[in-house]
Amino acid sequence: MQKGEGLTRRDFLAAGAAMATLAISAEKTLADDEEGTGPVVISTWPHGVAANEAAGKILSEGGSALDAVEKGVNVCELDPAVSSVGLGGYPNEAGVVQLDASIMDGETRACGAVAALERVATPVSVARRVMEKTRHVLLVGAGALEFARAEGFEERELLTEESRRAWEAWKASREKKEGDPHDTIGMVAIDSRGRMAGACTTSGLPWKMPGRVGDSPIVGAGLYVDGKAGGAAATGVGEEVIRVAGSFLVVERMRAGDHPQAAVEAALARIVENSGTRHQVAFVALDRAGRIGAASIKPGFTYAVWRGGKVELLVGKVI
Ligand code: ASP
Description:
This protein is an alpha+beta fold. Helices cover 31% and strands 24% of the residues. The protein has one domain: (Glycosyl)asparaginase (Glutamine Phosphoribosylpyrophosphate, subunit 1, domain 1). It has helices spanning 9-14, 48-60, 65-77, 123-133, 141-150, 161-173, 238-243, 246-255, 260-275; strands spanning 22-25, 40-44, 99-105, 111-117, 138-140, 185-190, 196-202, 223-226, 230-236, 281-287, 292-296, 302-307, 310-315, 317-318. The strands form 2 sheets. Strands 1-13-12-2-6-7-3-4-5 form a 9-stranded mixed β-sheet. It starts with 8 loop residues before the first helix and ends with a strand. Mean pLDDT is 90; it is low at 1-21.
């Protein structure tokens, strides 16, 4: 990893809203380890900064890790300027926004998820209701929407002027290749009582096939949290993450004694070995001691860490 690699002007701009408390550490790939120093939040990409701020506020006030991760990623879901999550997320090849999300409580290993959910901007909150109000873990498509409606979620058009224009430009170019992976938010937190939780939410790969489901709502792939070991979340080409049960693999390595950084690097190495190519995938991880890990296969990955009331945006180590 070359120092400073991958932190683009766009990253700085995206992080701008949170500049007041933000220290961008373009020279640093790892946050300082401060074990047992209270609540911590880690999440993917520059929009993780605003999400971590919201999550951190909840944790500072004594709130639970579960509330923190849900409300934290809601910030990105509801921000139309984030083109990879929730409202304003890029649509599938038919021009329809289909969202994937999951949430997991590390204390109980309870989890909930939705996939290919249309017309609801906060799929992670629907996922939480699946976890808390049904005997199931994953609802998809029309059934997920019906459940969200019954739970009183507001329906709206998720395609914005900007995302429609991007989709039209893609169609006009007649490029049949899949879009690049883009900026799912995955978040893991530990609260002041040492409880852990995680959430993951995305509009998935842009211009994906209708009905395509990525790693983000697949518990064990895009997200896994076990408070006895730690939690991990993924971003990047979801198919590659699913093939190795990526987040579960990271958590199991931590359970076996790996530092979170070693765990994420091992899981990425497994993905490279497994696929024989180097698609972009990145993980963030947090162990029960509050230590963090983050890395990616290709350059360009950034992640946000909130600890002690401050957020840092860091550059992921490239394996
Ligand atoms: N992992 C997401 C998916 O495959 C996309 C991303 O994070 O860029 O749906």
